[in-house]
Structures are given as C-alpha cells and as structure tokens.
Amino acid sequence: MEGIDKPLTHTLDPTCTGTSMYALVYKDGVAIATDRVCSYGKTARYKHIGRQYRVNENVIVAFGGDHADFQWLQNVIERKELDLKCYDIGAKLTPKGLHAYLTSLMYYRRSEMNPIMNTIIVAGMHPEPTYDNLVPFIGVITPRGVGYATKHVATGLGAMLLHQNMETVARSNDYKLSRDEAFALLRKCMEVHIYRDCTADNEYDISSITKDGVTMEQPQQVIGSWEISELNNQYE
C-alpha cells in the first residue's frame, strides 16, 4: 500500500541537465547549436558532453533537460531506425515522422504522470513527396508532449533572451540566409547566451543538415571578452 500511496517521483526531478538550444532554417537547410555541458544543479558536472544525436543522413535530434531521459530516448530512436532497416525496404526515419512519433510518446508518458523531462528539437530535411525534393524542417517537443513545427527556435533561457532576435534576422531575410550567415547568427546567440546563463558552457556544437546530408562541425568555443566587465558597476 505504501507504494501505491507514494509512487516514485524521481523522474519529475531531473539531476544532470542540459540548457538552451538554438535552431534555424536557412536557404539550403537547417542549422542547430547546443553547448556541451551537463549540469548538476548549477554545477558544471560533466563537460564535453554533446547534446546532438545524428539519427541518419537527414535527421538530427537535440535535447535540453534530463540527460538520463534522453539516453533512454536515444535508445528508443535507434530501435525504430533499426526496425526500418530490418524490413529492407529502403525506408528510414524522416524528421516529420520522428517528430510525430516522439510527440505521441512524450504525450503518453505525460498522461501516465511519468513524463520524459526533455525538450526535444528534431531538425532535418524532409522528403516532399520523395527524396528527390527535400525541404528543411524543425520540430519542437516539450516535456508535456506539446509538439509544433517552426522555422526558428530558442529554448530555455535563450527563448527569453534571443528568440525575438533570431526571428527578426531570419524574417528580414525571408528565411534565405546563407549557411555562413546562419552559423554567424547561431554563434552570436551562443556568445550572448553564455554571458547570461550560469549553467551554459563556452564549448558548443554547431551542425547543419542539407540535401547533401548532416555536417557536424568540430566543437567550438566562445572566447570571452573582459572588456564588458567594466560595465558591471554593482560593487560601487
């Protein structure tokens, strides 16, 4: 009876977590950036931890929130991809299909009062109607199982700080930014973010998905500037 009266609640209290993510549709594909730290509360417990997972040559999944939950979710995605390969019909997970599946799964888990404590970004190139015509896609899923598609997204603290800036720049260019322009915007977002989020790290991953496949760049770093320290006069 004790187990019934007091069910396990540890899943509602994430331990090691990742913070904000940024993704953007540009002229030829999708760009996505995440930092490389898992925090234990406010402590940078595990550094050099990537939060992007390459599903196949057309899809990347990135996560914020509980790292253990995403490890379980990654195993689920791998099994789904393997199931398609086992049928040997040339099929593979598409970004829209994976987004729909994960939305249903996370909504089910939330309805069972056992939510997956992750915010998920599914980014990639979706075949419409065939793989001869690939179009950029970004889908977002919240821990409550709310899913939506968008052309730009910032999560976590970045949603408050930088989402409007991303939208302004992307819309002013009619979402036709070049790859270099999209990367420059995401790098600027990461720089602004790290100065303001105590759970962010200066090392980050930045990737792109185009019709030619997934390109995951080498980890990059934000080099801090001490010039801005002169603007902090709270001690006076």
UniProtKB/TrEMBL annotation:
InterPro entries reported in the protein's UniProt record: Ntn_hydrolases_N, Proteasome_beta4, Proteasome_sua/b, Proteasome_suB-type
Primary location group: cytoplasm
Compartment(s) where it occurs, according to its Swiss-Prot or TrEMBL record: Cytoplasm; Nucleus
Record Pfam families: Proteasome
Cellular-component GO terms for this entry: cytoplasm; nucleus; proteasome core complex, beta-subunit complex
Name the UniProt record assigns to this protein: Proteasome subunit beta
GO biological process: proteolysis involved in protein catabolic process
Presence of the UniProt keyword Cytoplasm in the record: yes
Protein family membership: Belongs to the peptidase T1B family.
Protein purpose: Non-catalytic component of the proteasome.
Subunit structure comment from the entry: The 26S proteasome consists of a 20S proteasome core and two 19S regulatory subunits. The 20S proteasome core is composed of 28 subunits that are arranged in four stacked rings, resulting in a barrel-shaped structure. The two end rings are each formed by seven alpha subunits, and the two central rings are each formed by seven beta subunits. The catalytic chamber with the active sites is on the inside of the barrel.
Keywords: Cytoplasm, Nucleus, Proteasome
